[in-house]
Amino acid sequence: MESGKHKKRVSYTVMIVSDSPYGGTHPLYLKQGLITTVLCLIAILLAASIGAAVYHWSALRKVAGREAQLQEQIEELTQQNQELTTDNAELSDKVAILSDTVTQNAETQKAQEEEENAKRVPHDFPLAGAAVILKSSEMTAETGEVADGEEDSVEAQIMADQEPIVVFSASAGTKVIASANGVVASVEDDPLYGHRVTIDHQNGYMSIYRTASSPAVAAGDEVERGATLYEMQSPDERFGYQITQEGTLIDPLDLLEVYG
Questions:
Q1: DSSP-assigned beta bridge partners for residue 12
Q2: Is the bond into 164 cis (omega within 30 degrees of 0)?
Q3: pTM, whole model, 2 decimals?
Q4: Can you give the three-state secondary structure of the chain, one letter per residue?
Q5: φ, ψ for residue 3, nearest 5 deg
Q6: Are the beta carbons of 235 and 207 closer than 8 angstroms?
Q7: From first to last of its 260 residues, what are the pLDDT tens digits of the chain?
Q8: How many CA atoms lie within 13 A of 90 on its CB side?
Q9: Which of 186, 167, 164 is nearest to 248 (CA)?
Q10: I need a labelling partner for 177 at 20 to 30 A (CA). Which of 48, 101, 104, 140 fits?
Q11: Residues 6+ apart with CB under 8 A from 236
Q12: Separation CA 6–CA 190 (nearest Å)
């Protein structure tokens, strides 16, 4: 028997033929192992190329998708920005309108307060009818003395203590009225005139009304300008009128708008 069979070595011949008539042919001998190695390398390169192509294609798809997503976000943000711009313009208009309204309300409130404050200044005439001034600070200043026979009388002393004062004479039925808005601070007896009504105008001014007629108001009553306080009655048709400012008597004629 043969000791063993030798494995045959296979080799391959590659013929290189020149296209020149003088070139001839050149054989190239390749072993099987070398060919296998070359084929493996070719297969590896081909697989790597395919893998790279797939990877780049996938990456390109992701980039394209990301770009589309970003574009969609940009469009959405652009629309939101336009809506916000529109809303901001509308809000600006509303703020302007509200500001104008607030300003108008403030001006209206200020005008109302000024009007209300003006109604509380006792500058209206305190009688709803014609009257004659019997005595005033101006008259006293001009004459420099009281009437004859009154120098030592109790009435003269009381009147001197009540200066300044304006004393009117009006016909029976003439109404004594509030010269401004306020609250009746007191209704008292008066030693010289009979009754005295004091109105607090709640702004530093107080007006005092003195006459013999019965008062038509009571302490605590709120009165408006022109409200009836008395109705003049015979036989004593005198009416004394005074004003205090921060507790000090002032000349009523300085505030009366209709005087003269």
A1: 30
A2: yes
A3: 0.59
A4: CCCCCCCCCCEEEEEEECCCCCCCEEEEEEEHHHHHHHHHHHHHHHHHHHHHHHHHHHHHHHHHHHHHHHHHHHHHHHHHHHHHHHHHHHHHHHHHHHHHHHHHHHHHHHHHHHHHHHHCCCCCCCECCCCEEEECHHHHHHHCCCCCCCCCCHHHHHHHHCCCCEEEECCCCCEEECCCCEEEEEEEEECCCEEEEEEECCCCEEEEEEECCCCCCCCCCEECCCCEEEECCCCCCEEEEEEEECCEEECHHHCCCCCC
A5: -65, -30
A6: no
A7: 455 555 566 566 666 666 666 666 666 666 667 778 888 889 899 988 898 888 889 888 888 888 888 999 999 999 999 999 999 999 999 999 998 988 889 998 899 888 889 899 999 999 998 899 998 876 665 554 444 444 455 555 555 567 799 999 999 999 999 999 999 999 999 999 999 999 999 999 999 999 999 999 999 999 999 999 999 998 888 999 999 999 999 999 998 865 44
A8: 6
A9: 164
A10: 140
A11: 193, 194, 211, 212
A12: 160
Six token digits for residue 101: 């309204």
- The residue type found at 82 is Q
Here the tokens at position 191 are 């030693």
- Give the pLDDT score at 234: 87
**Residue with the two structure tokens 């099987």:** 32
Contacts of 219 (CB under 8 A, 6+ apart): 184, 185, 186, 187
Task: Tell me the C-alpha to C-alpha distance, in Å, between residue 62 and each of 48, 72, 74.
Answer: 21, 15, 18
Residue identified by tokens 């589309």 is 68
